[in-house]
Amino acid sequence: MWADTVTLRVGDQLVGVRADTDCTAAVVRDTFAAWLEPTATGEQGEPIPWAFSLRLDPDESDLDRNRRGPKSVPQLRIGGILLARSRRPDDVVNALDHVLGGVLARQDDTRRWLGLRTFVARDRAVLVDAAPPALKADPRLARAGITELPTWSVAVDGDTVLVPPRLTAAADERREAPSTYALVGLVGLDACSHAAHADPGTGDAAHSPDRANDHDAVHHPTNPGALLARFAARHPSTEWFQTVERLVADGSIRVTTDRAVAAEQVRRLLASGDATG
User: Fold this and answer.
1) pLDDT for 91-124, tens place per residue?
2) Stated pTM of the model
3) Of 95, 77, 150, 92, which Cα lies nearest the Cα of 118?
4) Number of domains in the chain
5) Do 258 and 134 reside in the same domain of the chain?
6) Which of 16, 126, 193, 245 could bond to 50 as cystine, CB 3.0-4.6 Å?
7) Domain containing 157: what range?
């Protein structure tokens, strides 16, 4: 199923890219020629394990049962996590370029790096705490002109989100600066799907009102203190705590267990302040 693994040296880190075909492996080698480490091995001499999986050549005969198209649409993954997908292979290669740029940039430990997903519209950004593929290529967001940036992580400086440039930009003498966006909100899409409030009449101690309240505080925080505790925990810096504190005070942090609600929250936060929003 997988043709080859290409090893790259990104800064001081070795990264493996598993390719679905020899043609895909050739694209990786050509695009990232300056970072190739063909003979790299781990500390004990073993081959470098793959980290990313890149599929560029979908099998058009591999249709899902609902006939919605090929399951193997061009995509980029790390393990089972979907990072990017598009019917245009160039978009997926570009996403890998941006993700690797983030791998390089994150080695600068003087910045406050966050592993939150970044949704943008024009010069504004909302950071989302949700595991892909939730909200990935969501048509509601696409219709609103909102896109998710393919990046490994982002840095936050006060109320500014800094998105690292592509890895290949590092080979350019002009050296691209990070893209900057105004941070206007945070959204948490909780994976928890069971009922937030169980029926205490069942007699089950696990379903008592106290247990339900404890569950809500952890999985469905809504009060300012719980929201501050949840999101401030993503980074230990005082500056990030102050950023989250401001967003809580502004009412710009939302949490839900419903994907459609999360998409609407992202849209509303990015539209806030717009004359047309």
Assistant:
1) 999 999 999 999 999 998 889 999 999 999 999 9
2) 0.81
3) 150
4) 2
5) yes
6) 16
7) 110-277
